[in-house]
Amino acid sequence: MASTSAEIIAFLLTISGWVLVSSTLPTDYWKVSTIDGTVITTATFWANLWKTCVTDSTGVSNCKDFPSMLALDGYIQACRGLMISAVCLGFFGAVFGLIGMKCTKVGGSDQTKAKIACLAGLIFILSGLCSMTSCSLYANRITSEFFDPSFVAQKYELGAALFIGWAGASLCIIGGSIFCFSIAENSNSARRGYAYNGAASVMSSRSKVHNSVPDKTPPKHFDKNAYV
């Protein structure tokens, strides 16, 4: 029962993390222009993995998609690939996790379902690591430019999408770890059941041997004077 509850919690955590990671990919604010040292702000610059935009003081936004994938910076291409991989891995992890849970009727025996659940946990952990690496790589580029005194172009700060991606990656890793522990718990349960059955069989065999041994105690013959 405890294992089933743990698997349900792990499934909810991983699905929530996967939804957050998936929503991070099209989110606009991966980085936002800083207002540090600015007295009057007339425009706000922001960008994500697909476009760069500017919003003026009236709230009107003008966006420009990145014209060429090959002309992009290497870190943006890497972040795109990692985030897409995280979303795809999360989908397959959700499918395997649903099959490997004890509360479902598919997947075979408990040992087989435990292995499938462990595989789902590993996939979710890998998905979380991909998302964590992508957000950290993007954030590292922002912070390195922000604290570089020789960088004179527009400086940016961390956007909301990065924090959503980090949160989703953490949930995927935590839920995936709980899924991986399910195979260890099932193996321990199987060992306890085997030990109990083995002990019961030994006791049964001993009782059979004891019953099969004939009683060689010589019969006692009492004389009639013994009752007097």
What distance separates the N and C termini? 69 Å
Q: Provide the residue-averaged pLDDT.
A: 81
| Structure class | alpha+beta
Work out the strand percent.
Answer: 5-15%
Fraction of residues in H or I helices: 55-70%
Tally of helical segments: 4
Question: Strand-and-helix sequence, N→C?
Answer: HEEEEHHEH
**Can you name the CATH architecture?**
Up-down Bundle
Low-pLDDT segments: 193-202
Biggest sheet, spatial arrangement of strands = 4-3-2-1-5
CATH topology: Butyryl-CoA Dehydrogenase, subunit A, domain 3
What descriptors fit this protein?
elongated; 10% strand; membrane; 4 helices; 228 residues; Claudin; alpha+beta; cell membrane; transmembrane helix; 5 strands
Please outline the helices and strands.
Blueprint: H1 2-24, E1 31-33, E2 43-47, E3 51-56, E4 61-65, H2 74-100, H3 110-146, E5 156-158, H4 160-212
Helix pairs in contact: 1-2, 1-3, 1-4, 2-3, 3-4
